[in-house]
Amino acid sequence: MEHSKLSLARRLKLQQLAIFEKVVETGSILAASRALHMTQPAVSKSVHELEAQFGESLFTRGKRGVKLTEFGVLLQRHAQSLLADLRFLADDVNAWSNGVSGQVVVGVLISASARLLPRAVVRMHETAPNVIVTVRVGSNDVLFPELARGVVDVVVGLLPDNQAEGTSGNLTHVPLYDETLCAVVARDHPLAGDPSIDPHQLENMAWIVPTQESAAWRSADAFFEAAGLVAPKRLVESVSILTNLELLLESSMVALMPHAVAEQFVRSGLLSILPLRLASSFGKVGYTLYAERTPTAATQRLLQTLHEVGESVRLELIANSPSTETR
């Protein structure tokens, strides 16, 4: 059976796609029915109708729920884009109506999750309190494809390969400030109060470093090279802030962290930045947009506050650079 744009427009219902997407998200017909406040038979009927439209099975059923078939994966990819466009329409209509509502879905990396993004959201809500901000945490290799599909509106964090401002492929990168890496320990660590640490004192310690597939891995390598250290043999690879913080508080480990992130925990009295006097570059922190999509009014509000907060973070990092730091 051949399909065309018009034939699909006549037969498909957006509600069917929304139900299909919820089943994929929750992993079962029952869980989707609860999330949608629908009966289980109604959800099953919608899925069966969608399968009948294409003459293909969308799911395989098992004891633990449902799993997408190969055709189901194909349909999900397009359903995400269609539903994202519907959300953009709703946001634009809401913004047109009152100018201070809508939704922004933000993909965030560790480099922006502790200071840049929280401050920007707080500042935006001072003038647009009804904008809903949904945060998705991940790495660039996950978030950039979601950005292209419209699942997220903007990705905030470390830009790939020190990307300067401009468009690369279908992505537009906008740097806000240059970030550096620093070594941190728990506030009560034996080295926390040492005003002059030789990097070689850290050689045999256990380290927490970024995962190898993350954009920060190359910066970690450069850090050890600048310090004259070989890559540690005892290490944990993690980009989870909460996991890294707990590891530091429960052990004598040393962690590599973006300076702006570490400063937040220093102010909270949890961590101490080791005074290694190293200005090891972490890269450029900023945001990335999909070049072929115009940001919604709500997204534009967030971008404006990202620029404002980014400038203040840039000045703070200059003031707390290794040459002036006394911790």
Quick structural gist:
This protein is α/β, with parallel strands linked by helices and 327 residues long.
Write the layout of secondary structure elements.
Blueprint: H1 5-11, H2 14-26, H3 29-36, H4 40-54, E1 59-62, E2 65-68, H5 70-98, E3 101-108, H6 110-113, H7 116-127, E4 130-137, H8 140-149, E5 154-158, E6 166-168, E7 171-186, E8 207-209, H9 217-226, E9 235-237, H10 241-249, E10 254-258, H11 259-267, E11 271-273, E12 280-290, H12 297-319
Parallel strand pairs: 3-4, 3-5, 8-9, 8-10
Antiparallel strand pairs: 1-2, 5-12, 6-7, 7-10, 7-11, 7-12
Report on the structure:
Residues 12-69 form the HTH lysR-type domain. It holds the Pfam family HTH_1. Keywords: DNA-binding, Transcription, Transcription regulation. This protein is of the alpha/beta class. It folds into two domains: 5-78, Arc Repressor Mutant, subunit A (Orthogonal Bundle); 102-327, D-Maltodextrin-Binding Protein, domain 2, CATH 3.40.190. The chain is 46% helix and 22% strand. The chain contains twelve helices and twelve strands. The protein has helices at 5-11, 14-26, 29-36, 40-54, 70-98, 110-113, 116-127, 140-149, 217-226, 241-249, 259-267, 297-319; strands spanning 59-62, 65-68, 101-108, 130-137, 154-158, 166-168, 171-186, 207-209, 235-237, 254-258, 271-273, 280-290. The strands form two sheets. Strands 3, 4, 5, 6, 7, 8, 9, 10, 11 and 12 form a ten-stranded mixed β-sheet that branches. A hairpin with a 2-residue loop joins strand 6 and strand 7 (171-186). The termini are far apart.
